[in-house]
Structure formats: structure tokens, C-alpha cells
User: Fold this.
Amino acid sequence: MGRAFLLGMSLWFYGYFNPAYLLIIVSSVCINYLFYLWMSRLQQQDNNKFRKPVMIFAVAVNLGIIGYFKYMDFFIENVNAVAGTDWPLKHIMLPLGISFFTFQQISFIVDTYRGQVPKYDFLTYACYVTFFPQLVAGPIVTHDELVPQLLDTSKKKIDWDNMAKGFYIFALGLGKKVLIADVFGGAVNIGYGNIATLQATNAIVVMFAYSIQLYFDFSGYCDMAMGLGKMLNIDLPLNFDSPYKALNLADFWNRWHMTLGRFFTRYVYIPLGGNRKGNMRTYFNIFIVFLLSGFWHGAAWTFVIWSVLNGLLVIVTRMFKKAFDAMPSVLGWLICQVYFSMSLVFFRAARTRDAIDFFKQIFHLNFTSIYKNIMTAFATPGLKFLLDGSALANSLPLIYAAIYYVIALVIIIGCKNAHEKMVAFKPNVRSLLWTVVLFVTSVLSFSGISTFLYFNF
Assistant:
């Protein structure tokens, strides 16, 4: 596939959501390429005096762009709250995936300063930034992972094995999103729309429903990106490695959104000193990384609280590593999953007040039956076709919900992840039928517009 054609299709894909986004991403690409040329020229001139200031300025410009589009209203709201002012909000449109393609370019700028980037023409650079499978929700790809593949002429030929693998993984990701994540999302929306009436049982059901929704939503997108890349003979880095199989939160964060973790490790944690300056400095550096991760996810204090909660337990896990390692595996897994699911209440809640009210519903310990309107969110056409009219009619809503929770748990714990499946994939009639059935079922199950949750970040 020619790079010009790939760039055109990537920009069309991005602009399809909103043509106004194109001006932002094209401007961002052009500005950062000029910074790259500037630093490359300074390097050729062996002018080390100005290379670092240019790099800092380039990073500041990128962060300023994110700050304006993503955090301006958040800043105004907090200034108004603290200072008693009444500045009007800007209601700025948040460009799709701006955090992803900006962080990707920041990594490129810093690597250029470090002398790790060879000479790239503008077309190659633009294709690297805008490569559509991972443009709007990651993974965050480094230049050395993607650019050599884009320049490899052998990858321009159709590889039918890669096409089969890619379509299989794409269908798998689409199924995760449509057939599982969106179903749990229906129950989550009902629950968070009626927090005051939940009571303990329903709050717990909704809390774990969101944990499952987020898992399959993000996992599904990562699979689809990986599958699309494979169909184009491009191998994208692993971004999601069965995090819910982790036995502690430190291991969990090594498996979840791995390329974002890698970004913060390379460009924040290690420059701050990493683990080279004693335990207290290490814990501080970890805390900073998680704090920044919270702000990266969204302009709200709920995301900051969520990130701080996770950062604190990761620090505790490192401080008492021997004790955590000595725990029975089941206990370690339960602590990790329950703690993370509880932290996600802040991640999902629209306001901090809503999250607190949600926890009040749980800790009042007023256990009741599960509300029927929450359970009916799981009444998909397939289950209704199989079970309606049976002798269990009165219990069907509960059965629907139980089936989905069991299926989700079996997939999370007992199945290989998409990368493992892709490695083991063999094109045959059975895999073809499975792929087609999964893809068609997913398409026929579209019930409305439901974007991926990470599109918001």
C-alpha cells in the first residue's frame, strides 16, 4: 500500500467523525515535523546548546495544545470555585484521540533529541502519526516499531495468511465490544443514572458490570486495531495482556494499556530517577506517574482520585512485596480485582459526589434483590430466543444476567488473549466459519451508536 494512499485514507478515517478535527491533526503533524527538522539540523551542526531548549519548547507546545482542548474548562471551573470568580466556560470541542497522537509525537520529539531517530521524510512521518488502526485509541507506537514496517516494500503485497489472522482478530474484538461490553454497558448506564435508589446489592452488581464493560471495551478496541494492522501486514505492539489474570495490582498495571505505561516509564519515571535513588524516591516517582495518568485520562478530579487510589496500592504492593507474594493466588487475585473495581467507581462517575453516593449505597449494607430493570439489560435477542417460554420464565431476568457474568468470567480467566490466539491461529474451514459467524452476529447486534470508552481520552 502506497504511503500517500495510506495517509489519505487515515485522514479520511479521522475526519469522518468530524471534518473539523482534520485541521487540528494536520496542524499538529506539521508543527511537530518542523520541530524534528529543527532539532535534526542542530544535531548535524553539533549545536548542543540549543537542542535541549528546542526539545523542551516542542514538548511544551504539544502539552499546551492538549491543555487548551482538554483541560481549559477544567481549569476555569476550579479557578471559579477557589477564587469565587465567574469566568464563562469555553465548551471547547475535544478532538478525537488527541492524547494518543500527541503523546506519540512527544515520544518522537524526545527520541529525536536523544539522537535515536534517523532521517524521515514528511510523508513517512505523517503516515506514522496518523496510521488509522491505532490513531484514535492507541496503542501509542514508537517510530522504531512502525516506520520500518511502513518503509518495507515487501509489506505492500497482500499476505493472505495475515489477512485471515487480521480479520479473525478484528472479528474477535468487534464481538467483545458489541456482544459483551455494550450489554454490560446497558446495565451500567441504568445503575449510574439511578444511584440514589440502588442500595447495596444493585450497586455491587453495577460496580462489577462496569469493570467488565471497560475490560471488554478496551480489549475489543486493542484487538480490532491489532487485526486491522495485521491485514495491512503491520504488527502493532501488544497493549492489553490479560490484566484481569494479574495476582496483584503492580502486575495488573504491567498488563493494562501497556504502551501508555511504557511512555510514562521512558519519559517520566526514568528521567525522574526511576528506582535508582532509594525506596522513598521510587515511591514518589510511581505516585507522579499515576497522578499524571489520571490527568491524561480526563479533565476531572474523579480521574485523579482513581489514579491516586491505584498508585497508592501499587506502592503498598512494592513496600510489602514479600507479604503479597506469600498470599494464596486466589486471595491476591480477589484483592486486586475488588480494589480495582471499586476504584473504577470514580473512573465512571460523572462527579466526585456521585462516586461518594455510590459507595454510600454499598456501605449502608442494605441488601435487596437485583432490580429487574438492571437485569433486563442482559435480555439480548439471542438469550430471549433460547430461554423465553421455558418453565423458568419468572427467573429469566436473573438468569440472563448470571449467564453474562459467567461467560465474561470464563473468557477473562480461562481463555487465551487475542495476541495468543493470533500466534496460534491456523486458517482452516473451522476458523473461517467461526470468524464469519462472530462478525455477522456482531454486526446484526448493533443496536445504536456506542463509541469505545477510550475514544473519550
About this structure: The chain has two domains: 3-155, 161-247+327-446. The radius of gyration is 23 Å.
